[in-house]
Each structure stands twice: as structure tokens, then as C-alpha cells.
Amino acid sequence: MEEIEEKIKDTVKKLFKENKIDIFIGYSEGTLPLRATPCFITKPDNIEKLVWNSYCFNNLAVYLPRFFLTQHQKKDARLPKIGILAKGCDGRSIVGLIKEHQIPRENLYIMGIPCEGMIDIKKIQDAGCKMQEVEIVGAKEKDNKIVIIDEDKKEIELKKEELLADVCMRCQYTAPVIYDVLIGEEKRKTKEEERAAIIEEFEKKPLEERWKYFQEQVSKCIRCYACRQACPNCYCKECFAEQTKPRWIGATNDISDVMFYQIGRIFHQAGRCVDCGACVRACPMGVDLRVFTYKLVKDVKEFFEYEAGVSLKEDPPLATFKSDDQQEFITEP
Amino acid sequence: MKNVHNWEPKIVAFLCNWCSYAGADLAGVSRTQYPTNIRVIRVPCSGRVSPFYIIKTLQNGIDGVLVSGCHPGDCHYISGNLIARRKFALLKSFLEYIGIEPGRVHFSWVSAAEGARFAQIIEKVTREVKKLGPIRKIVKKI
Lengths: 333, 142
Known about the structure:
Chain A has twelve helices and eight strands. By secondary structure, chain A is an alpha/beta fold. In chain A, helix 3 links the parallel strand 3 and strand 4.
């Protein structure tokens, strides 16, 4: 990890020296242990702040579209050149954003980094040391182990493997598909089937049970829109959730309105979701609707043979068609 | 609340201006009988129908939704219905997946010459929605 961190710093230094980038987006130490925070480097002096560890879970692609918003309106404004640290999921999100013309490829310098999976902080609670009871004052990482230091300087060792976030355990693309430079070597694991199995299991449940699960999850939602803010695909200037003409959702906490919001949000991800898990991580109430988002990923693959964020050439699935698309769902008299 | 015995479903039909709406018109002109449960909303093309319309309709307490457009290849705007077909394939499968009865949402192709087919489809949709009873899921209670 430290070796990679040094390599990142060296490369960023070189990029600034060669004047290839104006801003670099990476991670720096968080204010709490077991956290890293997104960090924007604009001066070479700040490069030392950069870190790379197992808590760099934010999807950095979410910050990209805003750099190209206002400038688009002024014709001769110079667009910034942005360097970005991209894990597999960030990389796929970037591909999606380039395809949807939100960010110009030529203004990006993608620093690919093969990711070994990020840890889920909630799993530390499950692992036996409860956050409320143990004050974690520090954390170290060495050879696939996370060492947590508590108030009394007692060290608790946990295996990284057991703490990996669910999405990371089922990750298919550990390194970005497109990059300008790749730090370290790419190791690819394919676990597509495992993920599909979860969906198939849910599909087999009776209708009422599925509805009950959806209702249970949605009823926890307080509509803070954190899931939307964390999602790189949700870059709309005006979201349907806040639109007033037409007003899709009432400003209530009625479960029906919450359902409309969640269905709308998930359905907007059809053919675009890269399953980075940012929405679930951002949720303060622990709403987990990934079984639904992934259903759309699976359907798009099954119906239209398309996978989001994998190639720059293919058209987005809902912006194109084939004359022989499946239509078994059509009602015949 | 609602008397189950003489309850009749309300169904909203989004019909494309160029084919299905004309098909419905033909059914009327030919005096073909079909259930009176549908409320027609004329849209320029089946591609104009956003999945949000469908969810919103159900949310407002409508028991069933039908979206009908031109047959594939016959779209007035060349490919509107083909783009719509992709959207609806995903929507139909998704709504069923989250637990909304599949019989509530229907999609069909009806051309301007198919008045009889239109009547048959309305009959079928009404029959299916009637079997399911009044919608309870997702409805906003006011």
C-alpha cells in the first residue's frame, strides 16, 4: 500500500511539473480513523497529503461533471485539465460520463489503480468491536490485516477479507477500463455468477414477499437525497425529485412518495449503474436497495447485451434499439 | 370503502396519436363493443410515454395502465416505438421484480386499421385488472 502511495505521489508531481493537469482528485487522510476523504490538489506543495489505503471508498467520478458545467456556457473559457485517481468502479463511471457528454476525455488524465477492495466500516461493528463501546483512536494496515487501536492502546487485529464491502467482494473490474497510466498491476477476478445468483434468489420469492422487502427498505428512507448526491450518474441540474413542473413527488414523508423517489432514482440508473455501491454507503439510514439496482444491470445485460462503463464505443442501451429486440412482454389479444 | 361486488377498475390508456388512437377511433366508428373502463390519454408517440407517467398513474390510484403504439417498423417518427420498447421491457420486468402485480401494466401494438384488435386488447386488459382487484400498493392515500 505504501509503495503504491509513493508511486501515486511521484506521478502526480511529474504531472504538475509537466503542466499536464491543473487539479488532481485523490484521497487524503480523513478526520476519523478508518476514513479517507476526497481531496483536491491544486498546488504541487499539497501532494504529500495524498493517501492510498483500504478506506478510499468514495467514487471520485462524482466530482467531475461540475468542473465542466458553467464553462460550457461561456464559449472561449479554458476548461481545466483534471487528473483523477480511478479505481475500477470510478473508471467505469468516468466512461459513462464521457459517453453522456458530461466530461471531455481530452481534459482528463486518468490514473488507474487496481483496487483490492475497500472495507465496510459497518462490518467492523459486526466483527465484535462495537463502535459505541470501543472508541477507535487509530488504525493501521499491514499485509491484508486491519489493526484497530482503542482508547487503552489495545490493538485489535481484523482480517481485511472479512471486512470487505459487499460490492467489492463481487467486483468484476478492479482496474479502470480506460486509463492514461496504471499504477501497479491489474488482477481481475470474475464473480459475475455469484452476483447474479443473489438476484435469481430474490426473483424466486413470491410477489408479496418481494414487495414487503421493498417496503421495509423504503420505509427507512428519510429522503435526504444522499444516495443521489453520491452517485456519479446523478448529475442532472434539476432532479425529478425537486421538480415543481410537473411535481412528481409531494413534499411529504408519505411512503408512496418515498417509493416513487426510489423507483425513479433506480430506474434512471438503467443501463448506467456500475454497481459501485456509493448510494448504499452514503445512506445514513441503512437503506439497501442494491438488489433492485442490480436487477436492472442484469436485465440490461440479458435483454440488450450491454454492460455500463466498459467501452466508449457502444451506444447507451436506452438511446438505441435493434429491430429484433425482445418483445415477449407485449400484450397480445 | 369500495364495494367489491360492483367495483369496476379504472384503466388509463396512453395511445399514440398515429396508430392506436386511430385504432380506438375505428373501433368506435365500427361500433365495436368493448369495456368502458378505459380513460384515453392521447400522446404523440409511445416513445413520449415516460416510465414516470406509468408509476405516477398507479400512485394516483388507477388500477391499470395500458400503453399502446404503432407496430414496430410503423412508427410515424421512425423509431419512437422501438426506443419505447426497450424502456418498457425494463420497466415491466422491474415493476414485477419489486412486487407490483404484472397484470397492472400492459404494452401493446395496435395499428390504425385494427379496431377489432383494439377492442380485444381492452377486453383482455380489463379482465386481468379486474381479477387483481383494486390497487393497494404504491397508492398515495390522501
